[in-house]
Amino acid sequence: MRRYAVLFLVVTASLVKPDAAHADLTAFLGANTSPSNRPVKGFAAGLSLLVLGVEFEYANTSADNMAATPGLKTGMLNLLLQTPFGVSGLQFYGTIGAGVFREAGNGSQETNGSTNVGGGVKVALTGPLRMRLDYRVFTLLGSPRNGRQHRLYAGLNIGF
To answer: pLDDT category, 50, cuts 50, 70, 90?
Structure first.
């Protein structure tokens, strides 16, 4: 019986055509709210297959000299888990990733590893154009001034 079940699964899998991979690019602006509100800008490039995807993301947070808060640059590789299709023009996703950061300002500099977790939604606008709303929490390793960073952004996303 088990042999027939395995044969059935192999035949079924060979007949099912997988969905093509989809790529997208996002340019974003937002705020890094830890420890003070500072502007952040960046981009992300991703590749997804139905519900699972990967993306590379680069972000640059400005320093806040008045609050003595250094600038922050991050480069992350993230894994995305998303709804397979939009519902009423909304596609929700969660993300987890790791990468590197560089914190610099006020006479100090720190470069080390980082992890992040977050989520968001892609809102259909027209054709392949979407708005992306995202929230992330970064954990900076080593000896940064503030080891936990919170970021909220809105971006313009184009899929192809």
So the answer is: confident
- Topology of domain 20-159 in CATH is Porin (2.40.160)
Q: What is the distance between the alpha carbons of residues 48 and 16, in angstroms, rounded to a whole number?
A: 18
Q: Report the pLDDT value the prediction gives residue 9, as an integer from 0 to 100.
A: 62
Which pLDDT tens digit goes with each residue over 57-110? 999 999 998 888 999 999 999 999 999 888 899 999 999 999 999 999 888 899
Q: What would the 3-class secondary structure string for the chain be?
A: CHHHHHHHHHHHHHHCCCCCCEEEEEEEEEEECCCCCEEEEEEEEEEEECCEEEEEEEEEECCECCCCECEEEEEEEEEEEECCCCECCEEEEEEEEEEEEEEEECCEEEEEEEEEEEEEEEEEEECCEEEEEEEEEEEECCCCCCCEEEEEEEEEEEEC
Angstrom distance (rounded) from CA 141 to CA 12: 46
Q: Which residues pair with 47 in a beta bridge?
A: 23, 54
Domain boundaries, the chain: 20-159
